[in-house]
Write a structure and sequence with these properties.
It contains 14 helices and five strands. With 395 residues, the protein is mostly helical. It folds into two domains: 89 residues, 3-Layer(aba) Sandwich (D-Maltodextrin-Binding Protein, domain 2); 232 residues, no CATH class. β2 and β3 form a beta hairpin. The longest helix has 38 residues. It is found in: Membrane. Keywords: Membrane, Transmembrane, Transmembrane helix. It comes from Pseudoalteromonas ulvae.
Length: 395
C-alpha cells in the first residue's frame, strides 16, 4: 500500500470515528421538529383573540381600539380598578402619576410581565407624540424632521470599500465565527484522539504499519474534514433558521442577500488552509501531553484562536495597515484575508498571494508536526520540556 493510500486510510478512519451519521440525522430531525412546533404555535396564535382591555385614568389618553388594545376611560376608583385587574377582568391599568404637572408620566399596571407591554408602550408614546405635535403647531413632517434632523451617507475616496448595503460587516463576523467553530471542533477531537491513543499505548503497533509522518498526515486531513463538516453544518443551520424566521414567523419573502455568495469559495479555501495549519499545530502539542488532566501544555492548543481575535480587533479599519499586514502574514492570513475581502474589494493577486504563502507555511508546519509527533508519541511517563520540543521540531 502506498503512502498516499495509507494517509487516506488514516484520514477516513479519523473522520468516521467521530462522524456519526445517525446522530447527525437525529439532530436535524430534532431541529425540524422544533421548527414545526414553533410554526404551529405561531399559526395558532392567529386564531386566538388578542384584544387586550386597558382602563385609563389619565387626561388626553388613547380611546377606543388601537391595534390589539381597547382603551376605556375609567369611571371607577383606582382601588376598584386594581381589583378588576387582579381578577383578570382587564389586562392593564394606566394611571397618571402627576395629573397637575406639565410633564406627562404614567404608571402602567399589569398582573405580570408580558410580551404585549412593549406594543402598548409604543402606542401610548405615539399617541402623546401626536398631541404634543398639535399643541406646538407642528406638522407630521416637521416632527419627523426633528426626530431625524440629518441623514449621513458615508462616501469613500477609496473605491474598494464595499457599501453598507452589502452587509459586509455581518459577512466578516460570520466568517470569523465559522472559523472559530471549526478550530474548536478540531481542538476537541484532536485532543481526544491523540491523547487517548498515547494513553492506550498503541503507538508501537501503528509505527509497525506506517511511519509517523503518514500517521500525522492522515490525522490532520481527517480532523480538517471533520471541522469543515461542522462549519458547513453550522452555516446550513444558520441559513435555515434565518429563512424560517423570515418566511414563517415574519411572513416576509425569502431574502438571502446578506450572504456574499461570491465570497464562499474563497472562505472554503482559506478555512481549509487555516484548519490544516491549526490542526497540525494542535496535533504536535497533543503528542507531547502525557496526562491531559494535569498538563500545562493544553492551553497552548488554543493559540490558533489568536488570528481570529486579532482580526476581530482590527476589522473596523479594513483600509488600515494592521488588517493589511495580517492578511499577508501566513499564520494569520487564513482569518484576515477573507474578512478583508468581505469588507473591501481586493485585486485577484492579493488572495492568491496569501494562499500561496499559507500553503508553504502549511507544508513547513506539517514537517515540524511530523517530527514532534514521532518523538512525543513514544515518550511516556514524562512530558518533554519546551526546549526538547523545539529541538525535535528543528532537528
Amino acid at each position: 500500500m502506498s503512502q498516499l493510500n495509507k494517509t487516506w486510510l488514516v484520514a477516513k478512519w479519523e473522520f468516521m470515528h467521530f462522524f456519526k451519521w445517525k446522530q447527525e440525522l437525529i439532530s436535524k430531525l430534532v431541529m425540524l421538529a422544533i421548527a414545526a412546533v414553533v410554526f404551529f404555535w405561531h399559526s395558532s396564535q392567529e386564531f386566538v383573540a388578542t384584544d387586550y382591555k386597558v382602563s385609563v385614568m389619565a387626561q388626553n389618553a388613547p380611546q377606543g381600539q388601537i391595534g390589539d388594545f381597547i382603551f376605556t376611560q375609567a369611571n371607577s376608583s383606582q382601588d376598584a380598578l386594581m381589583a378588576m385587574l387582579q381578577a383578570g377582568e382587564i389586562d392593564a391599568l394606566i394611571v397618571a402619576k402627576h395629573p397637575d404637572s406639565d410633564t406627562t408620566a404614567l404608571d402602567v399596571y399589569s398582573q405580570g410581565k408580558h410580551g404585549w407591554q412593549n406594543d402598548l408602550a409604543a402606542i401610548i408614546e405615539q399617541h402623546y407624540a401626536k398631541q404634543v405635535t398639535q399643541q406646538l403647531g407642528l406638522t407630521p413632517a416637521q416632527l419627523q424632521q426633528l426626530q431625524s434632523p440629518v441623514k449621513i451617507f458615508n462616501q469613500y475616496l477609496d473605491n474598494q470599500i464595499k457599501t453598507e448595503a452589502k452587509t459586509s460587516s455581518l459577512t466578516a463576523i460570520g466568517v470569523l465565527a465559522l472559523m472559530a467553530i471549526g478550530i474548536f471542533v478540531s481542538f476537541a477531537q484532536v485532543f481526544v484522539s491523540i491523547t487517548g491513543e498515547k494513553q492506550q499505548r498503541v503507538t508501537e503497533q501503528l509505527y509497525a504499519c506506517m511511519n509517523a509522518q503518514t500517521w500525522i498526515d492522515g490525522k490532520i486531513l481527517g480532523q480538517m474534514l471533520l471541522a469543515l463538516k461542522a462549519m458547513a453544518g453550522t452555516l446550513i443551520s444558520m441559513v435555515l433558521f434565518y429563512s424560517f424566521m423570515q418566511v414563517v414567523i415574519r411572513g416576509q419573502s425569502l431574502d438571502l442577500t446578506i450572504i456574499d455568495w461570491a465570497l464562499l469559495p474563497w472562505v472554503l479555501v482559506f478555512a481549509s488552509l487555516g484548519l490544516y495549519l491549526a490542526t497540525a499545530f494542535m496535533a504536535a502539542v497533543a503528542a507531547a501531553i502525557d496526562d491531559p488532566n494535569h498538563s500545562g501544555k493544553s492551553s497552548f492548543m488554543l493559540l490558533p484562536l489568536v488570528p481570529m481575535i486579532l482580526t476581530f480587533i482590527v476589522m473596523d479599519s479594513p483600509s488600515g495597515w494592521a488588517l493589511t499586514v495580517l492578511s499577508y502574514v501566513p499564520l494569520t492570513a487564513f482569518a484576515a484575508m477573507p474578512v478583508k475581502m468581505a469588507l473591501v474589494e481586493v485585486s485577484l493577486w492579493q488572495p492568491l498571494l496569501s494562499i500561496a504563502m499559507t500553503v508553504l507555511t502549511c507544508w513547513f508546519v506539517r514537517r515540524l508536526a511530523g517530527r514532534m509527533f514521532k518523538m512525543g508519541m513514544v515518550m511516556y511517563g514524562k512530558e518533554p520540556s519546551y526546549k526538547q520540543m523545539w529541538k525535535w521540531a528543528f532537528s
